[in-house]
Amino acid sequence: MPDLLAEKAEAAWRFVRASMFVLGESSARFYADATWSRVVTGGDEGPGGPGAHGGDTSPARVLGALLGDVTSRDALTRQSRPGDADHAAAGSNPTAAGATFTSGGRLTEVGVFVREVERHTLDGLGLCTSLKPSIQDLAPALDLRNCIMSPKKCHEVQTMAGAVASLAQSCGLHQVVELGSGKSYLGSELAWRYSFRVAGLDSSPTVTRGAERREGRLLDRRRGRGGGGGRAAGRPGETSAVPQSARPGEAGGHATVNAHVTPGTDLQVVLADSGVCVSEGVLLAGLHACGDLSSTAVRLFCSSPHARALCLVSCCYHRLTEQGDAGENLSSLPGFPMSQKLSSMQCMLGRNARMTACLSRERARHGKGLPTDSLFFWAVLQVLIRDHYDSGSSDEHVGKVFSKSRSFVDYCRRVLEKMGLDHAKLTDSEIQSYHDRYIDRKVELEAFNQMKAALAPCVEALILTDRLCYLQEQVNTFNSLLICKERNSKTSPQIWPSPDEAGCNYWRNVVLRL
Known about the structure:
alpha/beta, 10 strands
């Protein structure tokens, strides 16, 4: 198992490294840096270049390969050049991955690129399983009237709570510690629906107080329902109503604790007054564990003698720290890589690649999740700034200027003013000329961003595989599961309009147990 996992981690890294010709580029600097002509063979500058009309790597060809139906994509991936069969037979040969679809840092084989992307996702690496049957058995439909949550959040909490309950039940655990609990949506659901004793940890006093107020409102609502009655709480993991007398520390109780979690946090000390008896063993859970909190949770799982299981949904990969990041505290443990295996290979993603990991390939395929119009305006503006100003950065945060702008000219003037640049030196016609120059090449930006979205699950797979390797290195014996939550087409429209409409339709868990 260790050798096999290490091989998969190495294969994931070699593929991601071979894809840096896309992952390492910034969408904001797309036109200013002539990105398309550099990363795609035949994509010369201008709409009339050789790659603009029907070439194998034209924007239309790339979009067709990435957005076409499954049958079309499969047919395209079979159109491979000589010698590709040898690569397919080689399995996850880490040295062959990049050479089959790139040449000199440029995309040459769209079909092979699409196929290699699929081979280096969690599923393609053979690291996925599913708790779907047990989740469906354990998770009842939520009563939206008493959730004080949006339909999207209800869907996430219901699915996550079912996964936690299933894992805890199989491990014989009765208590849950929620890391980065926020408003305690997950914690209160686990306490109320499944009768677990739950303690939520969050570093923000304001958020913690808000969670306590929300818990009080939920208690009032639930007491009002049914005229003050209530069934007795069942065993942990079973669906039951919680008695009105339940308080933090009792079966089905839920407490919130203001605490900053580190890999060395002593759970027994931090949770001394929460009512959770840590010595009996706890399951660590995190729904949307942001940035380094996810890697901290994994390290805490290894260091704490009381943590018996971990169910973690990570998010905000762009906030992960890496050793060597400019401006980062190098004395702290990096969020990536964690494992000795990938650290020895000097893995470095960079911010652009980590930002890409946050994208949803499935939403992008349906025209959502990628703000193409605003990105186009922003990318064209970078060319204007390069040509007319001595300063100006694509990393500037300009807020929601696009939604407030009436036109490209209005957008540019608003942004330039916000950046402290003299927009009066340019006439409207001069500004508009930049838009007109690049509008026919907008499809290049669309194709490029779809390539990034396609690679998102590959970067995520690398990050999660690194964590599995770390755990394998730290713990002698454990069972590990990577769970990829799939779209549920039978979900009630009252709960979840549709995966594509409600957002966040795909999310992945790292589930581990001793």
